Give the backbone structure.
Amino acid sequence: MNWIESEETEIEKTVEEWLRANLPANWIAAIDTDDAVGLRESRELLDVADWWERLGDARWYVSTWPEQYGGLGFDSRRAAAVNNVLRRYKVPRSDNPLGNNVSQALLRWGTEEQRQRYLPGIAHQREIWVQLFSEPGAGSDLAGLSTRAVRDGDIWVVHGQKVWSSWAHEANFGILLARTDTEIPKHQGLSIFIVDMSSSGVVVRPLRQITGESFFNEVFLDDVTVPDAMRIGELGGGWRIASSLLNYERGAVIGGGSAAPSMGVGRTIDALIRHYAPVEDALERQRIATAYTRDRITVWTRQRHEAERRAGRSVGNESSILKLFHSQSNQALQTLSIDLEGINGIAYQEGDDWAATTAYGFLRVRSATIAGGTSEIQRNIIGENVLGLPREPSTDRDLPWSQVPRS
């Protein structure tokens, strides 16, 4: 064993000792005996708020952050050792899915005051965040957004509408991309702000999804005042920050786990094989083999991706390749799962947890080719930045935004 492996082993041992000392005894017993029912019961009894505080204090959740902001200063290799153990013990790691995105923006572009104010709330899950980017008329063409921030001394007055804003109905703060200059090309006139979601003029309307849930929302901003001190980065630098965050989000979407890491729901290929084997139908066996192959390709490609990050390379266009491949593979996998279940996957008896979860995964994964950037946008990125194909024709890229025709 070399010194790197030894260090990782020591980290994993330390994290495991902490977990066994801090998790409920019945949780540990369920993990040790692979008791899925016992683990589910333990989850229901867990004091989540207390857990977030202890996890934040221990710094495992944000181990890559600098020590002065509540992290451990770990590189991605040592952080991976931490996360391996957290996954093994199946612990809740975040109740704030977009907090990590925001923390990257604050650590890279935020002021010291912003970091001191907002990072502790993210590390301890005390404050929920929402990303206010997409609009009804600016989804794929995000740079064409219309939400305006007009300066009035030391404050900005914001007008506009956002949509598909996940967890906005629970969020304390939003990270907002708004137009601050209409007389220059659309990519150059954007800035990033922190918005208090309890501010006067902020109205959130949940959107019901096909699964029956409502964690997507419309957000209306009418005369919302934002202090200039809540601007992240330089004026007009919003597009660069937003692009970086979206790239980071794609990297998170393709992160750890197998088969369905980004969703947290849906069947894995391993679970399907265990549940349905042996499968008599030759075509279904072929689909299972294809799904297994695509899952292995995803895992190995993700491992190469992580190895490059550990070597010091930032997340690049490879995240678009893997995001595109993974989201389509996962949709195919969840379709396979409901086909294997047959009519019971559509009309199941109450209490049939397997069929209910199978149906939910099939419905929930419909968004996989939209969330984190649509498959069409990923193909554009791959075509232009990886394959070197010509950029799609655009008549408005260099025009001042005020001169661009809009509906």
The first strand starts at residue 129 and ends at 132.
